[in-house]
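[09:14] KT: can someone run the structure on this one? pasting the chain below
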Amino acid sequence: MIKVVSLWALPAGMSEDEFESWYVGKHIGDAQKIPGLRRYTVNRVVPEERANTRFYRMAELGFDTMDAARAAFESEEWRYAFADAKRYIGEFMRFYFDSTDIKR
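[09:31] RB: done, structure tokens below
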């Protein structure tokens, strides 16, 4: 599975409550519409660790193949979700991984 991991910081002047209202109330639903998306996990840095990082949220998007991920990022659904998100993103980083789940 290809995992696309995005890290983002809150923009200057935006409260966590304002961000969470948009993220949970709108963005998660928009992201779930991205074609080819097989897995979607959202994460928030625990309060005790926020002073140790500039990032606030991490999202993991899973696709069957790199071609599926590329196609998703060319879709209207992706363009819409990302264009809307630009207002709510401070610093942003994205990484691509070839991921294997290890079962215990």
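[09:33] KT: thanks! The beta strands are 2-8, 39-44, 57-63, 92-98.
[09:34] RB: yep, looked fine to me
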